[in-house]
Design brief:
The complex is a heterodimer of chains A (about 300) and B (about 180). With about 300 residues, chain A is α/β, with parallel strands linked by helices. Chain A has 15 helices and eight strands. Chain A has helices at about 20-30, 50, 55-70, 85-100, 100-110, 125-130, 130-140, 160-165, 175-180, 205-220, 230-240, 240-245, 260-265, 270-275, 285-295; strands spanning about 5-10, 35-40, 75-80, 120, 145-150, 185, 225-230, 255-260. In chain A, the strands form two sheets. Chain A has a four-stranded parallel sheet with strand order 2-1-3-4. In chain A, α1 (about 20-30) links the parallel β1 (about 5-10) and β2. In chain A, α3 packs across α4 and α3 (about 55-70) crosses α5 (about 100-110). Chain A is globular. Chain B is an all-alpha fold and about 180 residues long. Chain B has two domains: about 5-100, Orthogonal Bundle (Fumarate Reductase Iron-sulfur Protein, Chain B, domain 2), CATH 1.10.1060; about 110-180, no CATH class. In chain B, about 55% of the residues lie in helices and about 0% in strands. Chain B has helices spanning about 5, 10-20, 30-35, 45-55, 60-65, 65-70, 75-80, 85-100, 110-125, 130-140, 150-155, 170-180. In chain B, α9 packs across α12 (about 170-180). Chain B starts with a helix and ends with a helix. The chains are: A alpha/beta (about 300), B mainly alpha (about 180). At the A-B interface, α2, α3, α5 and α10 of A face α7, α8, α9, α10 and α12 of B.
Amino acid sequence: MEAILKVGYFPGCSQTGTAREYDISLRKVVENLGASFDEVKDWSCCGATSAHVTNHKLASALAMRNVMLAEQQGLDDMVAPCAACYNRLVSSQYEMKKHPEVKQEVESVLETKFQKDIKVMNLIELFMKIGLEKITENRKEELKSLNVACYYGCLLVRPAEITKFDDAEQPTSMEKLVELTGAKTVDWNSKVECCGAAHSIARRDIVVELSKKIIDDAKRHGANVMVVACPMCHTNLDMRQTIMKRVFPEYKEFPVLYLTELLGLALGMDEKELGIDLHTVKFNYNELAAEKATV
Amino acid sequence: MSSHTHNHVHTIADDIKDKTFQDVSLCYQCGKCSAGCPVRYYMDVAPNKVVRLIQLGFYEEALKSTTPWLCAGCMTCSSRCPQEFDLAKFMDAVRETAIEKGVKVKDKDIITFHKAFLNQIKSFGRAYEVGLVAEYKLKTMHLFDDVDSSPGMLLKGKLKVLPHNIKDKESVKKIFKKTAKK
């Protein structure tokens, strides 16, 4: 019997609310693949966009409070499934490593001394750690009817010097994961274009325009679904389609899934179990497969 | 050259360097950042020109421009800059400086949003969307935005009626207190 792999988990605020289904599907998939989570106790907001655009000291300290808690809990690594949280955490760690004065400042605010170098992983790195072969071994369904546009957005890959992950302009790691489900991936141009991010509320006009461009490009390249790994991107690309439909009468809805939901489907779970029914744009694999077979 | 070497006046360019370790003199104005910027179209001054304004000491023009506020923080510029100047980080510092100097921001809804967001974190330790949206709407008087999506979000359990409170809220309040601007 193999020992169960334990991984630290920093959910981030969206996972408890607007991206509830991302949390649900992530936990189920991880368990199905034989790993388990050790959640960071009493974690707080990473500071998000609002902290780093207004106060750099606040931003570092809010992010590092969570790394401090992980260290106190004895974790060696943790996954931050929200690309925005992931980026805040790795950027703050980077700044502290590069500039001793930042480290000193953060340690004085948090009244702590950082001893360990905790590895903060994004969602794709988590599956690499669990082992990609586990997905193939546990696969129940081949998602042959899907042509997937893998969307990385900004914060998984940029800036390369800080994330040290994949390629900032032409990443391919998500495609490799998605292809393990039996789905095909499309070659397209907008995988690292910005969806408008935190402007979702104050400048919805920008978000709608940028997000629609990304969806249009995915459609143009023959995709029938998009896969994302960030709650903020999902809100913009899925929920904001309500406005796209209102502003552009000819606009056709396009399903956007979390990577974990797609993996869950391949592992034999259904849409409801994975929380896919919580999306704005409906998605049902069997219906889509049947529809595809008739055309 | 920064005015450091001439008369030791601490300029805004120096202040930006203190905040983010970004030296504006690195920029030779190739414009690659503005060419790849997804929100350039909405800005009043191109991103590379904001750097130029700071290089030349036109601080007021730079600080009152809409550009830093519209920057989405996507970091396309930062990852493509041939001089490894982190422009997204520079924009953070320009925004922070504009707030410190009390510069009147044209796109003030954006700053109202950020303040409302941080108020939720300060109070509860985590983001509380209902409180955030309520504060934002009252302050901007955009009362009817998103009335089409919010009821559905509540029903799906995506918006919580009550905030998530962390246990050690005091530790987060303390972070705000210790990093507050004087």
